[in-house]
Design goal:
This protein is of the alpha+beta class. The chain has helices at 2-11, 19-39, 43-55, 74-86, 102-116, 121-145, 153-168, 172-185, 191-196, 205-220, 229-232, 237-240, 264-277, 293-297, 306-310, 314-323, 339-347, 354-359, 395-410, 412-424, 432-439, 453-456, and strands spanning 63-64, 71-72, 284-291, 349-352, 365-372, 377-379, 383-384, 442-443, 461-462. It is built from 22 helices and nine strands. Helix 2 packs parallel to helix 19 (395-410) and helix 6 runs antiparallel to helix 7.
Length: 465
């Protein structure tokens, strides 16, 4: 596949991209920046950014951390950026990868551009698209060729190494080594372990971005590691044969809610029933959910951390019934003691469906029954999450989501300027117009008594210089 992949990595320019692909790339970028702004308020991000600042010194090349401003190595910036985005589970994903491309690719691309002084907006947008195209195929390939269910970091590492090879101008042989190093060193972390025991390790995207950027710099120095099986194995050749013709970036979904994608079908079904029948939570005796195995596996019912709330099906589904929404407020500790949410979460009944299992991962389906206190049973239609490519969020909905996440953290003015810079990227604006806005630090507002705004329900403001 090298005869297809190598030119795609090194020779692609923005003129080769269809207009809709460029537009979708900007849309993904805007969404990820909103998630990153929100993620930067969490303990998970704060700890990792401090770790990068103390353990990943800038050396000869420096890159600024997302929404932090401290210079670190490009490897460290990719790590902390990936963890910052992953801290709030609202970022884009792809059904067949069972994971997330942009969460690792964006911070790697930003870190490389900053460290190498690559300021051209056209080049950056093209690199971002390349990352999505490679990452999606690599994710599908690794699921096909490995028996375990690994986190996104396992395969996004290889995509990030390719972006590193492009940024550093590596030759074909070095690029092949970089991708092999990244595949070998990428975190083959156990996704279902984190589903069963949710913690800050989450989807491994930060470690994948770190491994990928590191691999490119290692290959530039002569370190070897080829081949990358996910790119070169004949068993996955079909995934690469349409590179540059089928644009898999267009297959990414956009999440309307900041929780695991597997939890969103029953959550959506509850919201639909609540709205259709004008219900209040106190009318509901019990919620019954029929869905696929992985959604049932998100078993936390009474979370004590935001990570547990994000990797739960029962808790956000109950929150949807009680509050008529699932926002960052419902994944913070301000919701963890809500008696009505806990009542419905603890009493929720799950049934695993063979039909839903057979449809997964191409389709994630749930059906919900509300047992009302007056004896009625209200049954939803088989429901899938909003934002899939078959039923995408509109550009306006994506922008509204961005502002909902970013405005309370950055302030309306800075948030709007960043959105405008994304819209102009590759058209009239170069990259620094954006990066100066998304690397400058944020300050936690006085109303928040802990380091985590997600826990406190926001309270951020712009730093006054």
């Amino acid at each position: 596949m090298a005869n297809l992949i190598q030119p795609f990595i090194h020779d692609l320019v923005i003129a080769d991209l269809p207009r809709e692909v460029c537009a979708f790339g900007r849309r993904c970028l805007l969404d990820l920046i909103g998630v990153a702004a929100c993620g930067a308020t969490t303990d998970m991000s704060r700890i990792m950014r401090n770790h990068a600042a103390t353990q990943f010194g800038a050396g000869k090349r420096a890159a600024l951390q997302l929404f932090d401003g401290r210079p670190v190595s490009p490897v460290g910036a990719a790590l902390s950026g990936g963890v910052t985005i992953d801290a709030v589970d609202a970022h884009d994903g792809h059904k067949l990868t069972k994971g997330h491309v942009g969460c690792g690719v964006l911070p790697a691309a930003l870190a490389l551009a900053d460290a190498e002084g690559l300021n051209d907006g056209n080049t950056f947008l093209t690199s971002l698209v390349i990352g999505y195209e490679l990452g999606t195929r690599l994710g599908i390939a690794l699921h096909r060729t490995a028996p375990d269910y690994h986190t996104s970091g396992a395969w996004v590492a290889v995509a990030c190494s390719a972006l590193g090879a492009r940024a550093l101008g590596l030759d074909a042989a070095q690029t092949r080594e970089a991708m092999g190093i990244a595949e070998y060193h990428g975190p083959r972390s156990q996704m279902m372990r984190c589903i069963d025991h949710p913690t800050m390790v989450k989807d491994g995207s930060g470690w994948g971005a770190m491994a990928g950027v590191s691999a490119a710099y290692l290959a530039a120095e002569g370190f070897t590691g080829a081949p990358a099986i996910t790119a070169e194995d004949p068993a996955v050749a079909d995934l690469w044969s349409d590179l540059g013709h089928r644009w898999r970036i267009l297959e990414q979904y956009c999440k309307p809610y900041p929780v695991c994608r597997w939890a969103q079908p029953p959550l959506q079904a509850v919201l639909d029933l609540r709205r259709l029948h004008g219900l209040r939570a106190e009318q509901v005796e019990r919620i019954e959910v029929t869905t696929f195995h992985e959604s049932v596996r998100l078993a936390t019912r009474c979370p004590t951390t935001t990570e547990q709330a994000q990797y739960s099906t029962a808790f956000p589904t109950a929150a949807a019934m009680v509050r008529g929404r699932v926002s960052v407020l419902e994944i913070g500790d301000g919701a963890f003691q809500d008696p009505e949410i806990l009542r419905l979460s603890e009493s929720m009944v799950f049934t695993e469906s063979e039909a839903c299992n057979a449809a997964f991962p191409a389709r994630r389906i749930a059906q919900v029954t509300l047992l009302l206190k007056d004896g009625r049973r209200l049954v939803s239609e088989p429901t899938e999450a909003q934002g899939d490519p078959e039923a995408p969020l509109s550009a306006e909905q994506v922008r509204e989501k961005y502002h909902t996440l970013a405005d309370p953290v950055l302030g309306v003015a800075r948030s709007e300027r960043a959105a405008d810079a994304v819209a102009d990227l590759g058209i009239t604006a170069d990259l620094p117009a954006l990066t100066t806005l998304i690397t400058a630090p944020i300050v936690v507002g006085d109303a928040a008594t802990s380091a985590s705004l997600v826990s406190q329900g926001y309270g951020g403001r712009e730093r006054v210089s």
